Structure formats: structure tokens, C-alpha cells
């Protein structure tokens, strides 16, 4: 074609108007493109056809990202279901399918320690003791009278208190 610019790629020569995107069929010209086998795609068509889609915003995920429950997310789209804070790179947990930051999960769902009344989250020193309807962080599981640790020891429940063997025998 007279007056048409010639383009070369990978040992082949094309008229400028003939070097088109296999998806939208628009001329690629001097724009960025992505080869795939014997086809060439403009960046938007390649992203739309081949790039994974963010589970939150449904836009193409072209680099980085987070995988959660076999779904991919942009780092900025992976948010706490409670407060909306970004969770990428932060400790988080879930309730059902929904991810939560530690603070939201603690206030909404975590059991409370019978010793200190703060949340038992499983983060940090996550070990805890459970007896009937009550739970304690391991450091909080101590005799209500003398404060000796009851971890690994026998104890006696006395209404809202728990007692070591010595304090129970003093009664």
C-alpha cells in the first residue's frame, strides 16, 4: 500500500493498518502490544482475555496482588470487612468467607478471657485454656486467691473463681 508505514516485528513486515489486535481488530501501530502465539493483542484486550480479575473491583490484575480463598485481589482492594482497612501484609483472620483485621475480629467475634476480659484472638501468644463456658489466656489462667499459675496443674472451680489445690484445701 503506497504511503503506508511499514512495521517490523519478529522477522515479519506489516503494513501499519494490517498490524491489528486479534481481539478488537484495531491497528496496533506504535502502541504497546502483547504477542500470544501467532496473534498480537493490544494491552486492554490482552488484560481482558487473559489476566485474572480482582474479586473486588473485577478489573484486571496485572501484577502483584493477594490470593485469599482461591481468589485474587489487588492489594488495595483486599480490605477488612469490618472497618475497610487494607489487609495486605497485615495479620488478619476470617469469619465465614469475610476477612477481618485483628481489631474488628476481636470486637465482633473473639471469645473474652475470664481473667483479663480481653479478646482471645489466636494471634501472638494464642494458646488458651477452656473449661466449661469460660476461656483464659495461658498467662491469665491462675489461682484467683494466690495467683499461682494453673497451667498444667489441677484446679478447682468455685463459682466465678478457680483455685489451686492449696487454696482449695484452706477452705
UniProtKB/TrEMBL annotation:
Identify the residues that the record assigns to the LIM zinc-binding domain, covering every copy: 52-111, 112-171
* Organism encoding this protein: Acanthochromis polyacanthus (spiny chromis)
Gene3D superfamilies reported for this sequence: Cysteine Rich Protein
Lineage from the top down?
Eukaryota, Metazoa, Chordata, Craniata, Vertebrata
User: Which GO BP terms, alphabetically?
Assistant: actin cytoskeleton organization
Record-linked Pfam families: LIM
Q: What's an example GO cellular component term for this entry?
A: nucleus
Q: Which residues form the signal peptide?
A: none
Protein's recorded name: Four and a half LIM domains 3b
The UniProt keywords, alphabetically, are: LIM domain, Metal-binding, Repeat, Zinc
| Single annotated GO MF | zinc ion binding
| InterPro entries per UniProt | Znf_LIM (IPR001781)
**The keyword Phosphoprotein is assigned to this record:** no
